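Supplementary Methods S3. Complex input for the S-adenosyl-L-homocysteine-bound model.
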Amino acid sequence: MQIPGHIDPVTTGTVPLRGGNRIDLVGLSRDAIGGVLIEAGLDAKAAKLRAKQIWHWMYHRGVTDFEAMTDIAKAMRPWLTDRFIIGRPTVREAQVSSDGTRKWLLAAADGQEYEMVFIPDADRGTLCVSSQVGCTLNCRFCHTGTMRLVRNLAAGEIVGQVMLARDELGEWPKGTMAGFGPDPEDEDDEEGGHYTADGRILTNIVMMGMGEPLYNFDEVKGALKIVMDGDGLALSRRRITLSTSGVVPMMARAGEEIGVNLAVSLHAVSKEIRDEIVPLNRKYGIDELLKACADYPGAGNSRRITFEYVMLKDKNDSDDDARELVRLIREYGLHAKVNLIPFNPWPGAIYECSSPERVKAFSNLIFKAGISAPIRTPRGRDIMAACGQLKSAATKPTRAELDRIAEEKQAALG
Ligand code: SAH
Ligand code: SF4
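Predicted complex, serialized as structure tokens:
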């Protein structure tokens, strides 16, 4: 298969950028960058202009060195370098699957590890981004769910994944800056003019890596606002999907304040089975969840909600389950699509994937009811990069340990 954007060789190694007391600007809003420049001594007008310039270099051009910011006065660049950095996560390990999927194990400044995955397709390139180190939830089919939650990722660590992916894919625009003439206030400005970017490699983002994004709402929102900003990474909200296991109280805010596509990890149509496999269901049940989907801002109009449904042998994959799924989608009047995900195994998992015939029959029943239900092709299984296989700690806990972690998490949910 011809893989767009397949870059060789894969770079590994570390980017020693986290410096002492210097402030990392990645993840700050434009105003917040202005704020730290004022705190460092610039007046309000200068801070605003410099924030705009720095933003453009950081997010549009991928520059990490203030010396490369040629429309900022030469004398000012060391001043910036002394006080600020434009950081990247450290790459601990980079792997490439036989199908072209790439996975990176990343480390934050405090050494915490998380994963990010790039999935190239003929017509798109999707980056699967993590929102937490571990997950507070404990879906029983998910490898990440066997980790304790270590911490939320900061906005800079979330947007940093997108920036690092662009570094690794060699995707930052080259040449002169788009829409930025030479700085009239700066006679040292060496560049100006326009460049033309040719086709994008990274076209879509899914918040489907490690963690539950709606349990880290503010940081995820801050990061996605930056990703969508027109003068920067400039990804349209239509190309971004946030996946939730069903944190009902945060769903409306996600629609109103972030406005990206919503995917909901439904995975079962009865209380009994969903309670077992997505234990968050004991807190927010199926009816509440589907009501929140019906109320999701924009749903029903142009925006379709995606239901994710992992196919587990003899658990949630019967014809009756498929019929009930159709009935529920109709009952709530949802404009929805169902993504059928063959279960991806991991060491210690207690489930098996449904047979290909069963998955096909399940899909056909839903299609026949006029609802799209494509079967997703697993990607990157050989490097443990497929849905639900991510886990940054390379331990294999015993069954008893897994049960204990699950109990602790359930108790913490209340
Ligand atoms: N925490 C969020 C987003 C991350 S998971 C959520 O749960 O929605 C991305 C998707 O992969 C979810 O639908 C999740 O349920 C699914 N998934 C988890 N483990 C899986 C596995 N072993 N095989 C297939 N899909 C899995
Ligand atoms: Fe957490 Fe999502 Fe995995 Fe559930 S499926 S444990 S919510 S990452």
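Confidence is low (pLDDT under 50) at residues 1-18, 176-198. Residues 204 and 269 are 29 Å apart (CA to CA).
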